[in-house]
Structures are given as structure tokens and as C-alpha cells.
What does this fold into?
Amino acid sequence: MPVLRVALDLPLHRLFDYVIPEASTADIGLRVRVPFGRGEKIGVIAEVVDSSEWPLAQLKPAGEILRDVPPLPADFLRLCHFASGYYQAAFGEVVMQALPVGLKRLDPPNRRNARPGPLTAAIERPVLTDEQTVAVEAIDPTAGFSAHLLHGVTGSGKTEVYLRLIERALADGKQVLLLVPEINLTPQLEGRVRARFPETGVVSLHSELAEAARERNWRAAFAGEASIVLGTRLSVFTPMPRLGLIVVDEEHDSSFKQQDGMRYSARDVAVFRAHQLGIPILLGSATPSLESWANAQSKRYAMITLRERANPEATLPLVKLIDTRRMVIKDGVSEPLMAAIKLRLERGEQSLIFLNRRGYAPVLSCTACGWISRCTRCAANLVLHLADRRLRCHHCGFEGHVPRACPSCGNQDILPFGRGTQRLEGWLQEQFPEARVLRVDRDSVKSRKQWEAMLERIHGGEADILVGTQMLAKGHDFPRLTLVGALGADSALFAADWRSPERLFSQLMQVAGRAGRAELKGEVLIQTEYPTHPLFAALAAHDYPGFAASLLKEREQAGFPPYAFQAMLRAEAPDMADSIAFLKTAATLPVIQQHENVLIYDPVPMKLSRVANLDRGQLLVESGSRPVLQAFLPRWREAIEGIKSPSRLRWHIEVDPLEF
Ligand code: ADP
Ligand code: ZN
Ligand code: ZN
It folds into this structure.
């Protein structure tokens, strides 16, 4: 009797066997109902064989094979297999997380595929600049796998390059996968794609879509009816029968990295997928990740460069540093920056003040006894939000009211310490009562709808001064915006996390790129106490390559990625002692002796050592060779699975961790 080997959504690195009266290898990739425990589950048939390592008599019979959707193709299963092996994630979990919720239900709702949207007139295409022409021609869609890094300064017309390549792929009858960071931040891009390709069926896939819409879009992509899939990280797993091109926009963006559940990098999975299918992939950014930059330097990726802004009238903004060491600064904003804002108001232009800290103030404190607002569940402060008078933990979500007096000594004089976007907004409004000040952060913009409305107001000229976090840094064109001021940048200069300069540079470069996108010249003012820091010098010179070269040299000397390959074992438990003890055991497992050239560090508490009442520790493992690390990880993971640990302890392995 045939045996179905089924992938189930369980954190176990194995398939589950069931007998069935009749089945063939043509059923691989179909969903099947199977008994599990006392209930039933939906799984995906990974193999059809005629024997099992278990006695056939012990196997339960499978339930119905579901045929409402065609079998998931072999390349999809291979991609899941790769991700499972590379990221030490259970195969069944990888497969099932890639499917829309409706397909995993025992009582499936009845749904059809999405129909292509209404037709709109295709907008005209601009004549390509010389640099754009070279870029488009650099990619030969018939030459098999090739990976390209498109490094283009902000406003250089990277999107236009994507659109032309997409056009060509569609003309060849191919589908295109366009991966973007958080999609609610990029309605402009989606609008441009839809306007350019009105008849080809563009579908989007992101977490804000309602379940039914997401499933419809997924089905349309899988059926080959939608030619373009525009999606966030999870969409990298969407089965697409005619996939011929992958584009990753803003490839450096950290939202391509999933930080919980299955921890993977959608950008890296995308490169693997392109390789597997023998198709081109294009990674675009004004500030590429150092990993991609190093790959381009070593010629593993082909480099394509756009040095000039596409609009000949638009020039790169002038970046100036405001040395705040000898200045009296009122509420964080220096005199020169105030004067620059005033000038923009007089000219009827827009200013953007960038402060990457939301809320009113990062902490509330008592002047008498030194009490500060701490989260009782985390090793973190509670952030003061004055708009709705709440104290909030940005890590565990805890919320409380703002006390009238110090909870510790009763003193009435408790004060907000430091500043966030809400406080800055209020203060700027006081200073410029006639100006329209608009705050843009995750508190003022919670949904894609709100974000679209906000963009409309900014474009409609309804704001004079924008105050915002990095939400404002990405890919938007505000034609009347001529001034960008950056506050609080210094805190990231000397942060403990060695990736922090890379992130700071890219954030500042992106936010600076908002200024002077049209005819009006842009100016960027950065307040700092370290005006001679090389990071700022590179920024002022718009010299990403120089900055990347110096960072890479530092990383090479220190033996950090991309010159070393890392994985992190993390454990969390109510008690730090349990977390650390578990990690110590993992660090001394006998299997480690069998693997040379793998370096195991000492277990340490995480920087944010407690979140939601759980104490968190981590253990770094590293190797100078990716294959050595990849050979070690599965055997180590199996050994870790055998460690006896307290029942409330949870652990996971993260490969290529970004945060420490
Ligand atoms: P990037 O994605 O590199 O930041 P965009 O693709 O958004 O840049 O292009 C910046 C601006 O230049 C946009 O307003 C776009 O319409 C315009 N643009 C792009 N390519 C051209 C071109 N070839 N000719 C004229 N304008 C262009
Ligand atoms: Zn007090
Ligand atoms: Zn908390």
C-alpha cells in the first residue's frame, strides 16, 4: 500500500507517514487531511513511497487528498527544503508558513482567484538616462542565473530600471517577483507599477491584507494569472510557475529579515531562488548592505551604478554639519537649524526634522528621589506618550497611566527626560505658531490607509514642517521639501552593536535623499558633537563606496561578517540562571569536538536581557567558512534537542543574525 510522507506545521525535523489505498507521485505537493493526536491536521504531501521505517500496520490511514488547488510545484518544495536546511527550521513549518491561512483550514472557505484589477491608462515612460540604459542592458534575461547589485544614489531612477526590466520579462511571457520592505510604506511604488502595467494583473502580498484578499492574490500568482507579485518578505515563497525575474528594492532594509518564528532573510532566500531557477535577480539600494557590497566587490554579484539623479534639474543635497559642542540648544534644536526652518517657511517650502525616537519622552523621572519609569516585565524604560497620556513599553507592549506623583516618594515634580517626536512636534509648533506641523511615526500612522492619507496631505502642501522617524526616510518624493534636519544621530555613533554605524549611515543617507528631489535645491543639516567623525565626512561627500570600504576593512580586521559566518543560539526562561545554564550545556556538547574551525563563544545575557518576564541569554557560534558552519549546525541542533531543560525554557537558532 502506498505511504504518504507528509509535512506538518510542527517544530519537528521530520515527515509524518500515513497509508492510503491509492496515490502516485503526481500527488506530491497536494494538501491532505491526516489524523493527528485526537484531531486532524492539514499537511502537504512531500513524498509518496511504498514502504516506511515504521511497520505499515502501525501507520494511520490518511484522510482526503485536497485537489482544489493544483500540487505545489517541485521548485517550491525545493526552496522550502533549502530554507529549512539553511535556517535550521523544520521543513513542515517552512512549507506551511508559506501557504495562505485558508489553505491550512480543515473547513476551507470557498474562494476563487483574484481577477485582474480595472484597466487604467498606462502612463508614459520617460526616456532613459544613459546610466539607466546601461543598467537595463547589463542584465541578460536569457543567460541563466545572474545576481546584480544596483547601487544608485537617491533619486537616480532605480525604480525606472526595475520597470523596464519588468516590461522585458513580461514581454517574454514571464512572471516577476518584486520584493519591497514594509509595504505600507511604499504605496507610491505600488501605484507606479500598477499604472505602468495596467493589464498584466499586479497583485500584492503583505501582512496588512485581509485573509481572503491575501489568499486570492496568492492563488492568482500560483495560477500564473498575475504577472507581477509585489510583496513583503514572506512573498519570496510564493509559488509562481513562470517566474523569470526577481527584484529586491531597498535590499539593505532590515525588514527583509524575519526576527521571530522562522528566522530568515528574504533577500538571501530570493538569491537562492533565482539561482535555483536559473534567472536574474536585481538587488537595488542607495546604501547596499555590506554583505551585498562585499559580494559585488568580489564579483560574485555584478555591480551596476547610477551616479546621477535622473531628473537633470535635481541635484544631490548639500550636507552640512552643525557642531553643537559650543551651542546653547533649546529643546534639542540648534539656532542654525531654527533659522533654516524659518527660511523655508518664508519661501513656502517644506522641512523635515528627523528624530528616530517616537513618543513624547523616552522616560519619566522624579527629580527628588531619582525614580524612573521602568517596565516591570522588561529590562527597559517606559516611554511617555503624552498624546493619550500613557506610559508604554516598546518591547512587550505594556501600557499604564501617567502617575500624578512619583510612585516611589510622592513628589509631584516628575518630569519627562529626553525627547521623542511628540515632544519635538509640540515644541516646533510653539516656536512657529503659524506653521502647519505634521508628525509621521508609527503612533500617528498605524495603517496603510492612514499612511496614504498622510502622504496625500504632504503632497497637497498641507504641511510646512514634518517631524518623523525613519518611516519618512524611505523612497518618497516630496517636491517642495528642501530642508532635512537630523537630531540625535550621535547616539548611534558609538553604540555597542557594531552594525550600528552601517545602519546610521544608511538612515541618514536615505532621509537626506528626501531633500531637493525636484528643481528646488536641497540642504541637509546634521546636529552633532562629533563633526569630524569619518561617517559624517563620507555622508557630506555622498561617498557610500568610500564609507563601505572603510567599514569592510574594519570588519575584516576584526573578523566580523561578511568575513565570518555566524549563528546565534538564544534561550529565554523566567530565570536567567536557567537560560545561561542551558546555553552552557549547549556550548559543551560532545558534537562540538567533532567539528573543527567552529568557534563557540561564552553564553551571555542579551543586551535587552528581560522581555515580558523572560530572561534572555545568547550564545554565538562562528566560523570563517560557511560550509563548515552549515555542516555543524544541524548536528548541533539535534544534540541541543536532547538537552533536558526546564519546561518554561524556549530556545531557537538564528542563522546570520543581524541584532545582538
Ligand atoms: P530612486 O528609486 O532611485 O530613488 P526614482 O526611480 O524614484 O529614484 O526616480 C526619481 C525621480 O526621477 C522620479 O520622480 C522619477 O519619475 C524621475 N525619473 C526617473 N527616471 C527618469 C528619466 N529617465 N527621465 C526623467 N525623470 C526620471
Ligand atoms: Zn520620587
Ligand atoms: Zn516591557
